[in-house]
């Protein structure tokens, strides 16, 4: 029973983390048709900003309980700033170009941001463990489990529901759905497609930064952490189907439990497990589990 509990909780925790880093990537692709390689760099910046913010926060002697508010505030501000600057300053100039060109541009942005991170924060590791340790742990079926990890699961669920509500119930979300269906017709009907693109890219960037911020207290923040993340995020969205929010959730669950099972039952297969799931899914459904049918244009 202890092993089963560990697999269930670890799989769910890893799936929540994967969803946080992948949902912004699939949202941007679904609306803008941009496979944003720079997403990994946004995650890394979020982790470094969190470490720096917490360093300043604790140096000021502020209450431990309010550190989570500082983390959330930093994630929103930095994500919004990065998203709007990148979209308005660079990507806006390339709309209508070939998708391969957009991939190359975002890859170049990824390399530039990776070097910018090293210039700003250096190459040494940063540690921001205090929020992770502050909450302590609870026992679930006699298994001690960190409360921080449980809150990460709750955060992923809450943000996923919030994103669904925004897309399905808000006016901006419905306009976004219309742009996804046909951006040319949407523009002809008077929808401000430029504003939709800017909003979408900002939200996707905020998700990437949030993923980095909530991960920072669990790891050593070092150069290069964005590289692994973009590969994992791409695997998740490919499993679920590029552009599908439910697909990102299901893909994260598949990948999360594949990793949890391998870690606890066959550790030597840990690095292979997620990509094995991706290969299996693509062999059965080449466009992913929830890929939308492409509209035919004349």
Automatic annotation (TrEMBL):
Keyword Lipoprotein on entry:
no
Q: Transmembrane: present as a keyword of the record?
A: yes
Chief location category: membrane
Segments crossing the lipid bilayer: 12-29, 41-60, 66-87, 99-123, 143-167, 196-217, 229-257, 269-290
As for subcellular location, the record says:
Cell membrane
The membrane-topology field of this record reads:
Multi-pass membrane protein
Query: Which keywords label this protein?
Result: Amino-acid transport, Cell membrane, Membrane, Transmembrane, Transmembrane helix, Transport
Q: Which PANTHER family match?
A: ABC TRANSPORTER ATP-BINDING PROTEIN, BRANCHED-CHAIN AMINO ACID TRANSPORT SYSTEM PERMEASE PROTEIN LIVH
For this chain, the family text in UniProt reads: Belongs to the binding-protein-dependent transport system permease family. LivHM subfamily.
The protein's name: Branched-chain amino acid ABC transporter permease
Q: Which organism does this record belong to?
A: Halodurantibacterium flavum
